Structure formats: C-alpha cells, structure tokens
Amino acid sequence: MAKQNVAEQFVDILARAGVKRLYGVVGDSLNPVVDAVRRNSAVEWIHVRHEETAAFAAGAEAQITGRLAACAGSCGPGNLHLINGLYDAHRSMAPVLALASHIPSSEIGLGYFQETHPDHLFRECSHYCEMISNPRQMPRLLHTAVQNAVGRGGVSVVTLPGDLAAEPAPDKAAETALVTARPTVRPGDEEIDKLVDLIDRAQKVTLFCGSGTAGAHAEVMELAQKIKSPVGHALRGKEHIQYDNPFDVGMSGLLGYGAAYEATHECDLLILLGTDFPYNAFLPDDVTIAQVDVRPEHLGRRSRLDLAVWGDVRETLRCLTPRVKTKDDRRFLDKMLKKHADALEGVVKAYTRKVDKHVPIHPEYVASVLDEVAADDAVFTVDTGMCNVWAARYITPNGRRRVIGSFSHGSMANALPMAIGAQFTDRRRQVVAMSGDGGFSMLMGDFLTLVQHDLPVKVVLFDNSSLGMVELEMMVAGLPSHGTTNKNPDFAAVARACGAYGVRVEKPKQLAGALKDAFRHKGPALVDVVTDPNALSIPPKIKAEMVTGFALSASKVVLDGGVGRMLQMARSNLRNVPRP
C-alpha cells in the first residue's frame, strides 16, 4: 500500500468526521488536496464560482444537518474570499471546517506572491485557527480543529502550505476518536432551584425564545401551559417555536409584530430561552430577568440578569417543569393573546386592499402566495434586507420547514449560496432562495453553480430595482435616498441564458401559476417578480434611531404591512381563551 501524503490524510480525517462535501475553488496551493478528494469516494468536491459562496454553502449545510461541513480556498486572495461566509457560519454557531491553503512554507514571511497570513486573519471568526508547519503536526492538529468546530459550535480554520500538503504523512499516526455531535448540558440543582423559586413567586411570566430552543418545542409548550405564560420569539427562534403554539404572542425586534414587546415588558419575570437577541433596547430593564443558554458567554451580555442558568434549553426545562407550581391565573396570558390578535388585525388591513390587482406587485403578496404554494418541508434561504421582513411575516413554520439566513451577521447575498448548501443535503427536498435583486446580483455568478451541478434550487427574486432596506434607513433618518437604485436586466432571461428555467412576473394574476410551474420544474429555476419599490409604508411614530441603529422599538412601531397566516393562528388561539 502506497504511503499517504498529508493531503490524503487530511481528506480521510474529514471523511471520518462526517464531512460529505468540500466546497471551494481550485488553485495551485490547493491542488494536492483537490486531487486527494478526487481519489476519495467518501468526499465530493463541489466546484463553486466564488469562495464566499463556498463558505455560505458549508454553513447552510451545517445548519440543516447539524453535522460538520467544510470549505476550502487557495492561498492569499482565494481563502480571503471565504471570510464573510465564515463570519456568518461562526455567528450562526454552524460547525464548519475551513481549509486555507498557503504559499510555499519556505517563502512565508518574505513577501511572496499572494502572501497573506490566514492563521491571523481568520482568528476573529473562528474558535480555532492554526497553521500546519510540519507534517508531524498531523493528524493531531486537524483532530483539534474538528473538535473545536463540533464541540463549541462554529468555525475552525486550518492553514496548510501547498508544499506540505504533498509531503508524506507521518508513520503510525494515531487514529484518535472524533467528536461528531455536541452533548446536552444540564444545569446544577442549585440553579434549577433558584429558577423554580423565581417562577413560583412571579404572577406574570413571559418566555422569550431563540434558536437555542431547537428540539425543545414540546418542553417549552409544557412549561408555558403549566405557568400560563405567553411565548414570544426572536427571528431565529421563529421556525422552532411558533408552530402549534397556543401561547404565541409574536416576534420582537425591528421586524417584529404582535404583542411580544408588550409581553416582555409587562411581566414580572422574563425568561430568555436560548436566545442571543442582539437588540438590548427591545428588552426591559425594570423586570426580573432569567436567562438559560448552553453558551455561557451569552449569559448577561444583552441585558441585566437576575439569574444566569448555564444549560441546554431542553434538558433544563425537563428538570425545571416538574418542580414548578401550576399557575391557574390566565389573565396575563389572555390579555397578551388579545393584544397580539388586535395588533395583527390592525396591520393586516394595509395588505388586503386590492393587493391582487396592484401593479407593481406588492412584495407582501408575493411572500404570502409563496407561503401557500411551497412544500410543507421546504427550506427557505433568505436574503438580508427586506426579504427578512417578508420571511418573518409570511413564511409559516410547521416544525418541518426550515428558514435560514444571515440573521446574526446580516450579510447581503447569502440566500443563493445558502440554498446551494441546503440543496446538496437532499436533492429531493424543495429549497427556495428568497432573494432581493441587490443580494442576488452581488453573487449572481453562482447561479451557474446550480446549472453546473443540476441543483433544483428555486430562486424567487423580489425585484424592486433598489436596495430597499437601505432606502428605508435613509428615509427614516430624514435623508434623501442616494445610491440605492439598481438598473437591472430581465433576470429570467439571464437564467434562461445560463441554461436554467426562468420566468418574469409583472402582474399579480400570473404569480401563483408561475411559482407552481417553477416548482414543478426538475432543475434550477428563477422566478423574477417585479415588485413595488414603494412598498415601505412607515408608521408615523417611528423614529430614525429605530431603523438606523436598530436601537429602540416596540412591536407597535414596526414596518407596516400584512402578516399572512399568523393572523389566522392568533385568531385561533384567541378562540381558545376561556370566557367568564
């Protein structure tokens, strides 16, 4: 048997760690690794057109599967392109291993062609970032990188000079067992007892949930039922907590709706469950606050805390709920449910007036129809900007759908590359990229990646020929919009020129049929929907700092517009309120 080189050993370890694909763009310093992938049937090389796409795709794959995903970039400019997508993956706690190949080891520090220092550059967006400077560091260094990415939830970066990748791997390298899944963390009894005491003493308790409630839906509902608590959520918590939720009071934040803001401010005790909600001005400063999070560094960094509980949400609630006393008083819960329904009734009127005849098409209408015709287990990837608004308001969670985006990092152009990573996990599952024309055109070259790999991603393009969210920020700040207009082509024609299915929609009556036809198409498809650039109606009480700084708000001072099927859910929950 021929002796392995470092690149071959590297790829073997990735395969043992569960990596199925390596996203990237080939290049000279990366060639030994790409060749090792070619000869390893367990790992597939995914050729993309831009390394930023590679990192976004790996991050999306990791979020969908919960397993380690990987990407790679060649030396200097190649791996520098990874950095934005890696920032997003790291802030989303997606386990990603990035290979940053490097210039020849003998030239490091001498100003060589394409020289950078990736072992320094990626430190801020990773848990672990180190360079292999000697073959004898393998495989221990790569093992350590894998353990950090999986165990801590985020990015690890390994820098590997191209010449070292081609050298023989060390003899008799130990095959260390690899961590491929994170454990659950249970708080100590003392912390559980303190939280029980806070709940039992409080008359009005609100639960506010983030992405850390993934897998804990039943436990959150059981606690809410026992203590008669309204349940609000942050944007990243929506897909995990809003469905089948008779205690739902909506979402807080700039894109929020309903009574979540009131519920968090009018309670006696606010319990933050698995959320690193970044906008501290939306959180109260005059109520008792407890926080439960598996990441101890998240505890207390957004608001003052009366109790910090370090633990996995599901395991914490399994310990907690049997110990708390049952509350019979529903007055606070019922009051918040009514406020929630009333708030949704108020904003939905702006959306319902002749919307099916309005030209250019209301983007709210597009999102609403998309929600109706998309599959029950669809994955939606969402561009940053106004698409975040439409997804937050209109995509209805059901426990099977997924909605992912750059919700913590806030990068443009994320929807298309994330859809690539999501689709590779299951070609039979419907994946829909909700793209804005600004974001789509930024990384439009990777639409060709869909065609090259025959990925059946469906791009629904909200084409208002502007950077809508930036324009809104300028307007609210009292500034004239400037530099926000895009001169766009017929994107459907561009899609057809690339070899994909493309259709342009300019009238509302064409929309449902166009979406259904695109979804039935077996390959990649793009639906270019011309939407109203003026669909940014702003309530009169909104203040500039609410938008430009994301600093102040209440759910009653958010972007105007409809809320889709959430109103139906709110009405249904309200019907269940006992009558005196």
From TrEMBL:
Q: Which Pfam families match?
A: TPP_enzyme_C (PF02775), TPP_enzyme_M (PF00205), TPP_enzyme_N (PF02776)
The record places domain Thiamine pyrophosphate enzyme TPP-binding at 383-529
Which superkingdom, per the lineage? Answer: Bacteria
Specify the Thiamine pyrophosphate enzyme central domain's residue ranges.
192-320
Q: Name one GO molecular function term.
A: pyruvate dehydrogenase (quinone) activity
- What Enzyme Commission number(s) does the record list for this chain? 1.2.5.1
Q: Which residues form the Thiamine pyrophosphate enzyme N-terminal TPP-binding domain?
A: 5-116
Q: Which family does it belong to?
A: Belongs to the TPP enzyme family.
Protein's recorded name: Pyruvate dehydrogenase [ubiquinone]
The organism encoding this protein is Streptomyces glaucescens
Gene name of the encoded protein? poxB
